[in-house]
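The following record pairs a protein chain with its ligand, heme C.
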Amino acid sequence: MSKSLKHIFLPAFGGTAAMLALALFVANRDYGQSRIETLEGRVTQVQEQVTAAGDNARAEAQRAAELEAKIAEVQALAEARVAGGANLTAPAPQPANTYGLGRTAHEEEIAAWDVDVLPDGRGLPEGRGDVYWGEEVFAEKCAACHGDFAEGVDNWPVLAGGFDTLGDEDPVKTVGSYWPHLSTAWDYINRSMPFGEAGTLTPDETYAIVAYILYSNDMVDDEFELSHENFAEVEMYNAQGFVIDDRPDLEYSQWRTEPCMANCKPEVEVTMRSVFLVETPPEGGSESIMNQASVDGLPSFSADGPAFVPEPVAQPEPEPASEPEPAEEVDEASLLIERGEKVFKKCAACHAVGEGAKNKSGPQLNAVLDRPIGSVEGFAYSKTFQAALEEGRTWDEASLIAFLADPKGTMKGTKMAFSGLKKEGDQEAIIAYLRTFLDP
Ligand code: HEC
Ligand code: HEC
């Protein structure tokens, strides 16, 4: 595969070992399939290596023999899986040879993923919340981006209004005007909002917020309470607005005819591969990078038949999770900055630092230490921050620590929609990190 092709396919497989493990659990059939795909993914690399190492041919022939034996083992395993593939709820298989990848998912892990809510309300947890409370929660956790009335701030999405604009050239698609199922709103908000702090809402809060969004769309009155009991009764405005596109020449119809099982090709040829294990670079960002450790440990199949399976690379001893032994001379200051950089990912949706940093939904944070509170040019601070500026207050280490631990408690009325850094030492780490942007 050419270099550029690799780049195209790299992001296609952002799975981590743990996700693989979950996939294994969910469908035995998929297990065999994805294993084979994973194996196939190594082919190209291996072929390159083989060409380069022409004079090692003999050694490789011997290796190939060994590996073919291993492949037979893997194939047998895959076939066994496919045979038993109908039972999707069977316990996860414990593969004989895991190549150092994946493990069986714990029940708790599956439960944490299994949160989807269906249009008829299946999957909803018990709970309730009314419009009044929803308004409060929304003001605290959502309004900074979506506006007090769900009307959207700047370019953040608007969640209310837009009725009867769907036929316009520039339709306003909101929860009210466009979404056909209320379950989508509940599910989406529960899983992914507040942006940057997903997963922090309780079921009751989510019911209340959804009730408030319905209210903002004039779909219920202010006395309304939403609960798991009356959820299915809410009628969405655009419920009938989606139709199945079953025109005969389109996908939907074509995939629903009886599949042709005659005159099949005698041979299958692999023409393309898309599997490479990738990971997010440590400095963050959306570009995936090759996970070299996993690549070196992966077996491979080739288009000309099975190639070889390298021995799994010995995994380096896992580093102790945090605090390294003080016995070793470690540069504590740079460790702290490193930790701060990681923690700052929680802030980066709203704050920029570094050269040319611009205000986002929060002010840029260059040289924030000893900076007057609320003083960044062109940023529309809350009244609280404006008052602090007038009083001549500045950020020092102590006030920053307190603010970051509990933004709403220390600066009542702040529009920083962030619940605070709760883990001990995180505030100090952030400050150490922010100090590196004193004079960009
Ligand atoms: C930091 C800003 C921010 C905060 C705070 C926030 N959101 Fe969002 N919200 C976004 C962004 C950005 C998107 C679009 C995400 C995307 O398209 O991937 C979004 C999308 C949504 C959508 C889908 C809109 C659409 O039509 O596609 C809903 C519904 C929503 N947010 C509800 C909420 C609720 C409820 C809260 C509070 C619990 C909340 N958001 C807090 C930024 C935010
Ligand atoms: C959802 C968006 C959001 C997130 C996430 C967020 N902030 Fe903020 N931040 C803001 C907003 C908005 C303000 C302005 C507050 C005001 O005007 O009341 C602010 C203000 C600040 C200020 C004061 C700046 C000044 O000019 O006075 C600091 C410091 C700060 N944030 C640090 C952080 C750090 C550190 C994190 C991560 C741990 C973080 N924020 C997470 C939105 C956010």
